[in-house]
Design a protein that fits this description.
It is a single chain. With about 60 residues, the protein is mostly helical. Helix content is about 70%, strand content about 0%. The chain has 1 helix and no strands. The longest helix has about 40 residues.
Length: about 60
């Protein structure tokens, strides 16, 4: 274990994001939610495509 002396330079806390990093984090969070929404809607879209294909095949 190493002790930190009072005269040593303080270490910077990297756990708190700065401006650009926080913006990127927000964009990734939004992209993740958008992807999750698209995955949730995919089965509904597949049903509509199958119904349209079946309707086209009957015509």
């Amino acid at each position: 274990m190493s002790a930190v002396s009072p005269n040593s330079p303080r270490r910077e806390n990297h756990s708190t994001p700065d401006g650009p990093s926080a913006m990127i984090d927000h964009m990734f969070r939004y992209a993740f939610l958008l992807a999750a929404s698209a995955v949730a809607d995919a089965p509904k879209a597949a049903v509509l495509i199958l119904v349209a294909a079946a309707d086209g095949a009957r015509s």
